[in-house]
From TrEMBL, chain A:
It comes from Azoarcus indigens. GO terms for molecular function: ATP binding; ATP hydrolysis activity. Signal peptide: none annotated. CDD domains: ABC_MetN_methionine_transporter (cd03258). PANTHER family: AMINO ACID IMPORT ATP-BINDING PROTEIN, METHIONINE IMPORT ATP-BINDING PROTEIN METN. The keyword NAD does not apply. This is Cell division ATP-binding protein FtsE.
Automatic annotation (TrEMBL), chain B:
It is found in: Cell membrane. GO terms for cellular component: plasma membrane. One of its GO terms (biological process) is D-methionine transmembrane transport. It comes from Azoarcus indigens. Its main location: membrane. Belongs to the binding-protein-dependent transport system permease family. CysTW subfamily. InterPro entries: AA_ABC_Transporter_Permease, MetI-like, MetI-like_sf. The chain crosses the membrane at residues 25-49, 61-84, 96-114, 155-177, 197-220. Keywords: Cell membrane, Membrane, Transmembrane, Transmembrane helix, Transport. This is D-methionine transport system permease protein. Pfam families: BPD_transp_1 (PF00528). Gene3D superfamilies: MetI-like. The lineage of its organism: Bacteria, Pseudomonadati, Pseudomonadota, Betaproteobacteria, Rhodocyclales. Residues 21-216 form the ABC transmembrane type-1 domain. It is a multi-pass membrane protein.
Length: 274, 226
């Protein structure tokens, strides 16, 4: 037998995954059948204009959106072939955060973080231990008994990250996680997400329309337009390859600061939006 | 001196007022329980099967349940009262008295509360429900861990509205021999012109409504952490 070189399974493999909605004018919108491979440990960005299909593509990964066609494979498991209980179990291993945080308002911060563990039937000891660990990871140990309405936007998103991390997911889906936040808060949240990736080894699929966010975090980026991924770009140290469509967009729509330091600086001023 | 003799009639009738209050409470207990258990479940089911929600694929159920709720709710209560009278006799063995009146009261309360609940649950942001789905929550877990918790203030207020409405509906039930405080007011106050009895029963009803409303609003405010 020949030894097959063993590489860790890809975190995400989309195979011909598409989703069509019929728009109000009868035009088909959504996401055209797409392939996507995200390696374990990668931070992969999805960028594009509003309505390009970024959120839909992201939501196809945990099947919040049921694809019309294709297969969704996450860490070797084919989600599209699962029964509803199997899918729910698989979703417990995939974290998700949102632009508007989506915290439970009538539960304390600690209970929000405990929520995914409770529905998974974790023991009280494990819940206590994970809530503590995750709140300390995002720097909010002192807010455990606060209500979400008492927190700032940045703190709410930290709680949402702690909640997503509680069941120790291997993958985090993030839909415009900083788009409701000011530039300074955005920057500190990007630090947290970077930590999630580096220290915990969590793969991240990140949707954003802000180039500075993508540059600061992502190893690779899928560029979307009108429901199609038109380009995949490697971002070595936040550098956008000059011959790419993305580079062209940047010169067209501004914010073409090439180094990560400058990209972070751009966040502080006006974040570059495509 | 203050002349208390005008209340002699009331004092004389105290046992009767007590009995009527008991009958009213019995009717309320039955119809509110039915409304919360059956109407509440129906309201939740209609919400979950509405567009964009977790069980939206059961569209037929949603359409049917909506139609039934609308039909029952469009009956004037007094007509419902008479219309289900044979049915009441079938269930409780008699068509008069508080037990018999509880049948049409429950019927009306169930569908009224179902609609109230369905509308109250719409206040829970779709994103919050979706976040729970993304975490792997089952539809039942979404109901008990998300919807009922996030909408709890609204649900308390809905129950308050239900209670107040059906306190006055139960008075109407008195007309067809349902008994209760409303029946007393009609028999003594209206037919016999015993104004003091009428005033006493109305005062009693006003106090009950005020207390229910106060309690409901206080509880709803306390539970709201949004
Ligand atoms: N549930 C839906 N029903 C109908 N159309 C939808 C639905 N979700 C998204 N769309 C449409 O699909 C397109 C892509 O949406 P979306 O993925 O949210 O874009 P983005 O996140 O890039 O702004 C848009 O035209 C949007 O209106
Ligand atoms: Mg979007």
């Amino acid at each position: 037998m020949t030894a097959v070189p063993h590489s860790p399974p890809a975190a995400i493999q989309l195979r011909g995954v598409g989703k069509r909605f019929t728009g109000s004018d009868g035009e088909a919108v959504g996401v055209a059948p797409t392939d996507l491979d995200v390696a374990a440990g990668e931070i992969h960005g999805i960028i594009g204009f509003s309505g390009a299909g970024k959120s839909t593509l992201l939501r196809l990964v945990n099947l919040l959106e049921r694809p019309d066609s294709g297969e969704v494979i996450v860490h070797g498991e084919n989600l599209t072939r699962m029964s509803p209980p199997q899918l729910r179990a698989a979703r417990q291993r995939i974290g998700m955060i949102f632009q508007h945080f989506n915290l439970l308002h009538n539960r304390t911060v600690a209970d929000n973080v405990a929520f995914p563990l409770r529905i998974a039937g974790a023991s009280p000891e494990r819940i206590r231990e994970r809530v503590q660990a995750c709140l300390s990871f995002v720097g909010l140990s002192d807010k455990a008994e606060a209500w979400p309405s008492q927190l700032s936007g940045g703190q709410k998103q930290r709680v949402a990250i702690a909640r997503a991390l509680a069941p120790e997911p291997h993958l985090l889906l993030a839909d415009e996680p900083t788009s409701a936040l000011d530039p300074r808060t955005t920057l500190s949240l990007l630090e947290v997400l970077d930590d999630v990736n580096r220290r915990l080894g969590v793969t991240i699929l990140l949707v954003s329309h802000e180039m500075a966010v993508i540059r600061r975090l992502c190893h690779r980026v899928s560029v979307m337009e009108a429901g199609e991924v038109i380009e995949r770009v490697e971002l070595a140290n936040g550098q956008v390859p000059p011959d790419s469509r993305l580079a062209q967009w940047l010169t067209e729509f501004g914010g073409a600061s090439p180094t990560p330091a400058q990209a972070a600086g751009a966040l502080e001023k006006e974040s570059a939006s495509v | 001196m203050f002349d208390l003799s005008i209340f002699d009639g009331v004092i004389e009738l105290l046992p009767e007022i007590g009995k009527a209050t008991g009958e009213t409470l019995l009717m309320m207990a039955i119809c509110l329980t039915a409304a919360v258990l059956i109407g509440g479940s129906l309201g939740i089911a209609v919400f979950l099967t509405s567009r964009g929600q977790a069980l939206a694929r059961y569209r037929r159920f949603n359409l049917l349940a909506n139609a039934v709720i609308n039909v029952v709710r469009s009956f004037p209560f007094i007509i419902l009262l008479v219309a289900v009278s044979p049915f009441s006799r079938h269930i409780v063995g008699t068509s008069i008295g508080p037990l018999a009146a509880s049948v049409p009261l429950s019927l009306a309360a169930i569908f009224y509360f179902a609609r109230l609940i369905e509308q109250t649950l719409r206040d829970v942001p779709r994103g919050v429900i979706e976040a729970a789905e993304a975490m792997g929550a089952s539809p039942l877990q979404i109901v008990f861990h998300v919807l009922l918790v996030e909408a709890r203030s609204g649900l308390i207020l809905a129950f308050t509205v239900l209670t107040v409405s059906f306190l006055s509906y139960s008075a109407v039930a008195g007309v067809v021999g349902g008994g209760g405080i409303g029946d007393l007011a009609i028999r003594y106050g209206y037919y016999r012109f015993e104004t003091d009895i009428m005033v006493a029963t109305i005062v009693l009803l006003v106090v009950m409504v005020q207390s229910i409303q106060f309690l409901g609003q206080w509880l709803a405010r306390r539970l709201d952490k949004r």
